[in-house]
Specification:
two-stranded antiparallel ribbon; 4 helices
Length: 135
Amino acid sequence: MAFVKEFKEFAMRGNVVDLAVGVVIGAAFGGIVTSLVKDVIMPPIGYITGGVDFSDKKIVFKEADPAHKVVENALHYGNFINAIIQFLIIAFSIFLVVKAINSLKKEEAAPAPDPEPTKEELLLTEIRDLLAKGK
């Protein structure tokens, strides 16, 4: 029973729950970014490059032969280019979100007032002032 209790305390910690929420939202955000890259960004890039669709780009090592049940062996570098673009968009989006959150945190934090001087500091200040007058 101690093991179950320890696991429950671990799982219900604030950081673990926050991480779980972040993973779920991140997965949903990943789908949005995939669609953004595939359906919005890549078509104009393909148009600019003369109708090139990066997802179809590949280097074929061995052609497929259905008669002999041989599958195609190819390096799909176009999918890799799409993945890089998706990563850059996600990284930039997360950067903007973190930057916005950090700017909100800076505004919320008010500077702490200077602490009152201690009795020793007041006494030392008084002694310093008296010595300065005596010179």
